[in-house]
Structure formats: C-alpha cells, structure tokens
Design brief:
Layout: E1 2-8, H1 15-28, E2 33-40, E3 44-46, E4 49-51, H2 53-61, E5 66-72, H3 79-85, H4 92-102, E6 108-112, E7 120-122, E8 125-126, H5 127-134, E9 137-142, H6 148-160, E10 164-173, H7 180-191, E11 197-202, H8 212-222, H9 225-229
Parallel strand pairs: 1-6, 1-9, 2-5, 2-6, 9-10, 10-11
Antiparallel strand pairs: 3-4, 7-8
Helix pairs in contact: 1-2, 1-8
C-alpha cells in the first residue's frame, strides 16, 4: 500500500488542497485511494447530519475516493480545544484501531493532519506522536507566506522527533514575483535543511469553485509523484 501523512507548519498552509489534489490524481491513475482525517474540526450541519468540510471537498474532487474520520467536531478550534468544548476526550487507541482497519482497504492512503506537528490531541499526545505511531512517511506542506524561520524549525523538529520526512511541497507559489524571499524559498529549504522539494503548486484563488481536473493537472505538472510515494507509476512513464 502507498501511504503518506500530510502535515504542515501552520494552519493555513493549504493541506486540504494538497491532500485532495494528490488523492484525486492517484485515483485517476488507477489506485484505489482513501483519505483519513483522524480528528476533524469545524464541521457543519447539513441534511440532518454533521459534515466535514475538508472531506466533502475530497468527495467533490472525486466521489470515488473513500473518506474516513475518527472524531468529527463542530467546534472550529484545535483538536484538544474542540474536544473539550464538546465534552469528549480524544482516545489515541481509537485512532490507532481505525487506522489499522484502513490499511487493507485502499491501495493508496493519505492521512491529513491538523494545525501542525505540535498540535495537541491529548496529554503527551501531539500530531508528531500520531505520525510516529502510524509509522508513515510525512509530506510537509509550506507556503510562501510562512517565514523561513518557522519552516526550517518545523522541518528540524520533524527530523529530531524521528519522523520519516519524505520531503517538502510548496503550495500557493505565485507564477511571478519580485519578492526575493519567495524566489529563494525552494533553494533555502534545500540548502538549510535535510529536506528535498517534492513539488511546487500554484495559487488557487478560490478552492470552492476550482475545477477538479485543474487540481489533477496541477498535481501532475507540479509534483514528483514517484518521489513522493517512492513507487514507479506506469502511467507516468513515457
């Protein structure tokens, strides 16, 4: 099975766009794909049920992608705060059991994190701990509006925590820019950390109206999928 945990340094990095683009692309390439978000916050009530906005977007991109969650909260806050607001304790064992049940259901499984590696889910239970429990490689999503300081610190934290960092994907990268910090971002990441750039994705002005085919095209053009998943993909070989 191909597997990947998608995390980031900050909340508004575009993880959901990246995860959805990867999932839709792998599904289009013939891999039965699932997206799992262990703890999802900011759900809405729709049609007499509670709906995850992030997972609904995945289904919008391709309804054939399977989606899963362990905890779904309406409170729009970090997992620990949302759980406390709804008087629920997040149980690591529940998440691990759910994860184990998904391993054989999909050829490709993407797990999407929350606000970042230090996001608390419970006492002595951070997102970095969850990734290590899953024993999954991690793709780290950054965007040019983040400071290079936060990006390098987060990369170093992941490596020092023993996480298998597959590489970095830069999201929301402008087609043209005069900002030297943005221009040099890919080079700075590779020169001042042990991470490799796995891809660069363009700005999407409004993800709510994006064409799913554009997501797939952007992913195929901007991401080294074979490096991300460490597999030879026959349909990408010409």
């Amino acid at each position: 099975m191909l597997e990947l945990f998608v995390s980031a340094a900050e909340q508004n990095s575009g993880k959901n766009i990246v995860t959805t683009g990867l999932a839709a692309t792998m599904q289009s390439l013939g891999y039965s794909t699932g997206v799992y978000k262990p703890v999802d916050c900011g759900a809405i009530e729709k049609n007499d049920s509670i709906q995850s906005l992030d997972l609904a977007f995945v289904k919008f991109a391709d309804p054939n992608i399977k989606t899963y969650f362990s905890y779904l909260f309406k409170t729009n806050a970090s997992p620990l705060v949302a759980a406390a607001a709804e008087k629920i304790a997040i149980d690591k064992n529940v998440i691990l059991q759910d994860f184990q049940s998904l391993i054989d259901r999909n050829e490709c499984l993407l797990v999407q994190g929350n606000d970042g590696l230090a996001t608390p889910y419970g006492k002595n239970f951070l997102e970095s701990d969850l990734i290590k429990c899953f024993d999954m490689p991690m793709l780290f999503v950054v965007s040019p509006n983040m400071s290079i300081n936060n990006i390098i610190l987060s990369i170093n934290h992941a490596i020092s925590a023993g996480i298998k960092l597959r590489g970095v994907l830069i999201n929301n990268y402008p087609a043209t820019t005069e900002d030297v910090n943005v221009k040099l971002l890919p080079r700075l990441i590779e020169e001042y950390s042990d991470a490799k750039i796995m891809g660069i994705l363009p700005i999407i002005e409004d993800y709510r109206t994006v064409n799913p085919n554009d997501l797939i095209e952007n992913t195929l053009m901007g991401v080294d999928l074979e490096a991300v998943f460490q597999v030879r993909i026959a349909k990408l070989s010409y």
